[in-house]
Amino acid sequence: MRDHLIQLFHAGIAACHPQRVLKAHLPEAERVVVLALGKAAGEMAKVAEARYPRVRGVAVVPHGVEAELQRIALLHAGHPVPDRSSVVAAERLLALAADAGPSDLVLVLLSGGASALACLPQGLSLAEKRALTEALLRSGASIGEINCVRRHLSGIKGGRLALAAAPARPVTLAISDVTGPPEAIGSGPTLADPTTMADARDILGRYGLSARLSETPKQVEGEFRIVAGPADALAAAAAEAERLGYRPILLGECAGEAREIGRRHAGLALEAAPGSALISGGELTVAVTGPGRGGPNLEYALSAGLMLEGRGGIQGLAADSDGLDGSSGAAGAFFGGIPIPGAAEALAANDGAACADLFVTGPTGTNFSDLRIILVAP
């Protein structure tokens, strides 16, 4: 069953990998400026290099992620909290956009993680932006809420990268990691922002925070297309489950507190018929109160595992599609089967990395949020 869990996870990864999904969407062009940012930026840039002989640009990826690029420069920056390299990356992206001529194709290759990787604070210092980002991440705020605030604090997000490219009209191809509107992907650097300063202020107030905000552009030029996303990964995992002899039950793209969703899904697994495969996606949250290392998928795995202790024939895997779940150093964790000593204490301390049955993949080259699978033996 563990082998089957891994096969289903990798089926989801393959369905949303740039090498598989991007090429068919690349437009015809002679001169191309690539602005790639996000956890999948390196792999997306590789596909663009193979397609266009006359290409220049940058790809911004997290520290530790590598990609073999020839004509597109690879930049590294901080994630999930921006660092000085994130500011340098944002400035480089804006400069390249502004340098593009009206006959150039400005090709923005966007994926999740871009919000932290390209950061240009407005109205606050980088240190203040880092502190605010960390507070929001620990608060349990959803990614949509966090990105709404980010758009109103940035010189590149919320459509400002598209404005910098004028008179060129950017074409944005995105691998989505969100369940909400497209401007939530990387905080929408090439999309007009439908949210207001009042929306962002309400979100900050909800979590006891404050910041000096600025309004975002409400009209920008350009084309935007999502080339892959969570639904594609769930469908691919379900097809693989069926091929392996399971009956897939799609729970959809879930949101909410990771430990609560873990308990709920474990309960569904206990009621499911033999041979079922419960499959879900979406990005869960964690209200961090303890000092440990972990992430939403480890919280989910520990919580679900505690519900399934002593129940044979049920095993699961919860993992982040980019290969890194929070601060854990792993993609996620297996659960079910044998009990995990210390799981309850680790869950209370947000310290899943201390005892979870870790699933380590390294960077996967894509990012469509999370993939969670629970198998019930035939």
Secondary structure elements and their pairing?
Layout: H1 2-15, H2 18-21, E1 32-37, H3 41-51, E2 55-62, E3 72-77, H4 84-99, E4 105-111, H5 114-117, H6 126-139, H7 143-151, H8 160-165, E5 171-175, H9 197-206, E6 223-228, H10 230-243, E7 247-253, H11 258-271, E8 276-281, H12 296-308, E9 314-320, E10 332-336, H13 343-348, E11 357-359, E12 370-376
Parallel strand pairs: 1-2, 1-4, 2-3, 4-5, 5-6, 7-8
Antiparallel strand pairs: 8-12, 9-10, 9-12, 10-11
Helix pairs in contact: 1-10, 7-9, 11-12
Q: Could you characterize the architecture of this molecule?
A:
This protein has 378 residues and is of the alpha/beta class. The protein folds into two domains: 2-10 and 230-376, glycerate kinase, domain 1 (3-Layer(aba) Sandwich), CATH 3.40.1480.10; 18-228, Glycerate kinase, MOFRL-like N-terminal domain (Rossmann fold, 3-Layer(aba) Sandwich), CATH 3.40.50.10180. Helices cover 36% and strands 19% of the residues. The protein is built from 13 helices and twelve strands. It is globular and about 65 Å long. The mean pLDDT is 95.
